[in-house]
Write a structure and sequence with these properties.
- The structure is a single chain.
- It contains 20 helices and no strands.
- The protein is 72% helix and 0% strand.
- Among the domains are: 52 residues, no CATH class; 89 residues, Flagellar motor switch protein FliG, alpha-alpha superhelical domain (Annexin V, domain 1, Orthogonal Bundle); 82 residues, Flagellar motor switch protein FliG, alpha-alpha superhelical domain (Annexin V, domain 1), CATH 1.10.220.30.
- The protein is mainly alpha-helical.
- The two termini are 38 Å apart.
């Protein structure tokens, strides 16, 4: 009880202070640059690209007076992220950006081509792999089996594995046999296939179906959970393919456990007041335990104590708190502070 009383007293004192606006990523970066000082900040600024410099400069020009507590908060957050194993990610785009900082453009293109082919081809096949598998399968049913085999040899293997069974047993066997026997596809044939995909399939698939499915996923994310469960059975029966695709695009409160530990901790630290304990009161034991395990022992005890002493919580308050955490996670993802695992089937942690 003493811990709960202390937390309530602290909360009451904090309520007397003016509520600070949550700072964006560029604003925090601007504060770090100002703390470095003119000389060291200028040297570090030279290593950024033009877009990053523009964002940070704009944020810096609008900061105004930042009190010591806010500066300390930003510095502490930065230090904690590094201390707790701030992850680094190696990727094609990171490698490309690094090379362009010190090599001529033609040399960069040559190196990248050796790694994964021309940039335009890479972008095309990456975008094509994101199209719903039912759309791809229906398209390939109208193509020659050799063309279908050439296309599926270029998409991600998990996409091909989902598409092939949708083509029917006999056609699948034929296409797989051609994929096994396939050698290098002539450049002229591959260029023609890519051009056809861009004009006949990519534009239509991306401009209509994907946009609507994304919109419906956002709607279902915000729909009352009981209402969603009531309509799910009907939608699965009447529009099974489209509904499955929409569900794969949804990101719910339970999906937060698929974030890495540092990302989940970042979300928990950023939500205001009693949002976190209220949200967890309505969560399953598995989800609640996962959240608690991410926290340091002392913070875990304090959060558990607060949940135990808050009394009954209304269902609508729980749903509002969980939605607030999901919305905040999406804000952080938009600022590229964390990465959301949007495809629930492909991003399960094991």
């Amino acid at each position: 009880m003493a811990t709960a009383t202390l937390r309530r007293n602290t909360t009451d004192l904090a309520a007397e202070k003016p509520r600070r606006k949550r700072m964006s990523g560029p604003e925090k970066a601007a504060i770090l640059f100002l703390c470095l000082g003119e000389k060291r900040g200028s040297e570090l600024m030279k290593k950024l690209d033009e877009d990053e410099i523009q964002k940070i400069t704009r944020a810096m020009s609008r900061l105004g007076m930042i009190d010591g507590a806010q500066v300390e908060q930003v510095m502490t957050e930065f230090t904690e992220n590094v201390y707790n194993g701030g992850a680094i990610v190696g990727s094609y785009s990171v490698a490309e950006k690094l090379l362009r900082n010190f090599l001529p453009g033609d040399q960069v293109e040559s190196i990248l081509k050796d790694i994964s082919g021309p940039l335009k081809e890479r972008d095309l096949w990456a975008r094509f792999s994101q199209i719903n598998e039912n759309v791809i399968a229906n398209y390939l049913k109208g193509e020659h089996s050799q063309t279908a085999a050439a296309i599926l040899c270029n998409v991600a293997t998990d996409v091909a594995a989902r598409v092939l069974p949708l083509m029917g047993t006999e056609r699948m066997q034929d296409v797989i046999e051609r994929m096994i026997k396939m050698e290098a596809v002539p450049g002229e044939m591959m260029a023609e296939i890519e051009e056809t995909l861009k004009t006949e399939l990519m534009g239509a698939a991306e401009s209509s179906g994907r946009d609507m499915q994304k919109q419906m996923a956002e709607l279902f994310n915000k729909l009352d959970r009981n209402a969603f469960e009531e309509i799910s059975g009907v939608l699965e029966e009447r529009v099974p393919e489209a509904f499955t695709s929409i569900k794969q695009r949804m990101f719910t409160f339970d999906d937060l456990i698929k974030l890495d530990a540092m990302g989940l901790a970042r979300v928990m630290r950023g939500v205001p007041g009693s949002t976190l304990p209220i949200a967890l009161r309505g969560a399953s034991k598995e989800v609640r335990d996962h959240f608690l395990q991410v926290l340091p022992a002392r913070s875990r005890e304090m959060l558990a104590d607060e949940m135990n002493n808050m009394g009954p919580v209304r269902g609508r308050d729980v749903r509002a708190a969980q939605l607030a955490m999901v919305d905040y996670a999406k804000e952080l993802a938009d600022e590229e502070v964390i990465t959301l695992p949007l495809d629930a089937e492909e991003d399960d942690f094991i």
